[in-house]
Amino acid sequence: MPRFALLFSLLLAGAALGSTAFGAGTVQVVLSDAKGKPVADAVASLTRLDASIPVVAPAEPAVITQKDEEFHPYVTPIVVGTRVSFPNEDSIQHQVFSQSEAKTFDIPLYRGAPKEAVLFDKAGVVTLGCNIHDWMKAYVVVLATPYFSKAGDDGKAAIGQLPAGRYHLEVWHPLLAGKVDREIVISASDDTTQVIALTLRPDRRIRRAPDAGGAGYK
Ligand SMILES: [Cu+2]
């Protein structure tokens, strides 16, 4: 086959399969506070603007454990339709409740594994508490997009496998003041980095467990 004909058929194949056939992009979101310190536990999510992408909930529930009178992890991002189970690994009883609009529920005091996992069927942020240990707090971030990542201690959240297109980038953190809201364009097999300085409210959580010696959080 002459070279120009081969090139032409490759172009045709590319046009027929669409841009996703040429790979997928990755966005690395680098989050810091106003002083430049990395921000852990922030959830970065990308919502496609030029196509609607369905979310598929995992068959297995996510797990938020109660241990040493705290919820672990502190922030759990999931997609709409995911169930979450709340095993209690302490020897004392805990309760779990939420009064958030995206999910209101109440699991009465229990030890061990509660009877069933809780279904999160609406997008939004759900604040969890335990009604006998009021310092116990955790967040479930329920997302209507499959493209998200939670920042580690280095403040970095990587979102991969992104088809080329226009996306709305959002960042959520329990202490975030204001909003992070940008539109970005991903080209296939392109790696892009978004560096974002977050304005955070002061962390006023104080642990009041008797064995905590009144120590605050890091
Ligand atoms: Cu508790």
Largest sheet: 4 strands, antiparallel
Q: What are the segments in which pLDDT stays under 50 over at least 5 consecutive residues?
A: 1-21, 213-218
Mind telling me the C-alpha Rg? Answer: 21 Å
Any idea what the CATH superfamily of the largest domain is called? Cupredoxins -  blue copper proteins
Ends apart, CA distance between termini: 66 Å
Report the count of strand segments.
17
Count of individual domains: 2
Total helical elements: 1
Mean pLDDT: 87
The helical percent reads under 10%
CATH topology-level name of the largest domain: Immunoglobulin-like
Proportion of beta-strand residues:
over 45%
Major β-sheet strand ordering = 13-2-15-16
Structural class: mainly beta
Per CATH, the class of the largest domain reads Mainly Beta
Order of helices and strands: HEEEEEEEEEEEEEEEEE
Shape: globular
CATH architecture title of the largest domain: Sandwich
Named once each, the bound ligands are: copper (II) ion
Characterization of this structure:
The chain has 218 residues and is mainly beta. The protein is built from one helix and 17 strands. The protein folds into two domains: 89 residues, Sandwich (Immunoglobulin-like); 91 residues, Sandwich (Immunoglobulin-like). The strands form six sheets. Strands 13-2-15-16 form a four-stranded antiparallel β-sheet, with no helix packed on it. The protein has a three-stranded mixed β-sheet with strand order 14-1-17, with no helix packed on it. Strands 3-7-10 form a three-stranded mixed β-sheet, with no helix packed on it. The N terminus and C terminus are likely disordered. Bound molecules: copper (II) ion.
